[in-house]
Specification:
By secondary structure, the protein is an all-alpha fold. Helices cover about 70% and strands about 0% of the residues. The protein has 13 helices and no strands. The protein has helices at about 5-15, 20-30, 35-50, 55-65, 75-90, 95-105, 110-115, 125-135, 140-160, 170-175, 180-185, 190-215, 220-230. Helix 5 (about 75-90) packs antiparallel against helix 6.
């Protein structure tokens, strides 16, 4: 049995135990590929769950994510996101609420909903904000810690992936969050993953330090600048279409 099959089977057991008949029907129909009928079952479930108490909807949200249960756009927008927004408004100091806000902030649906309701409009990067807050509330939340580490590495990759031809971003801005990234990685328990993250961190720190020095030099070819100083970086190949 594949991992996906195991997840689906567990989700069906949880749905049956909790009496979520329409959600169970959605899972069964999704499993056999009856997409239209599965969508209708999810609509029926979202309509039913809309009348649940907040605590019951929160329980569904937690079970959903703790067990990697199946979700679609309808359940996302009409059940999970409204529940999550209500949760963060009721319990702004709950680290789990902040963590799940961070997870949902990595997709467009929560952002659209927050914009429509004029919520958290003064926050720059939503996911970074909520994962950081989750860690402030619970320093042992390594799920949020790893998510935040991923965000910073995404920032670094995006800023540098066109080097040596060009840099996307502001070098000083990327350099400014390197100490926090290093701190987050070192707070992780010892593991091969942590060693890999530290290696990646050192790579990007060296690259940014060198690029910053290159800018001061007023030279015009960063690849040559690196070669002259025996710097070995792995450049992403660029393809240009005319």
């Amino acid at each position: 049995m594949s991992n996906n099959d195991k997840v689906m089977k567990k989700a069906m057991i949880i749905a049956e135990e909790n009496g979520w008949d329409n959600y169970l029907e959605y899972l069964k129909l999704s499993e056999i590929g009856l997409r239209k009928k599965a969508i209708q079952a999810s609509k029926d479930f979202a309509k039913e769950a809309k009348n649940w108490s907040f605590e019951k909807r929160k329980k569904f949200l937690l079970l959903l994510h703790d067990n990697s249960m199946s979700l679609n756009y309808i359940l996302d927008v009409y059940l999970c996101i409204p529940t999550l927004i209500e949760w963060i408004q009721n319990e702004p100091e709950n680290y789990l609420a902040c963590r799940y806000m961070g997870i949902y902030s990595q997709g467009p649906d929560l952002t659209d909903c927050l914009n429509k309701n004029n919520l958290f409009q003064d926050v720059g990067h939503l996911a970074e904000f909520f994962f950081t807050k989750a860690l402030e509330l619970n320093s042992q939340d390594n799920i949020s810690r790893n998510k935040l580490i991923d965000i910073y590495f995404d920032f670094l990759y995006y800023a540098t992936h066109h080097l040596p031809d060009g840099y996307i971003g502001t070098v000083n801005e990327e350099i400014s969050f390197l100490p926090n990234l290093n701190k987050l990685i070192n707070e992780l328990p010892e593991s091969d993953q942590k060693n890999d993250l530290l290696r990646d961190y050192n790579y990007y720190k060296s690259l940014l330090d060198d690029y910053s020095e290159y800018l001061k030099s007023k030279e015009s070819d960063f690849a040559k600048w690196c070669t002259d100083r025996n710097r070995n970086y792995q450049w992403v190949k660029s393809y240009y279409y005319y």
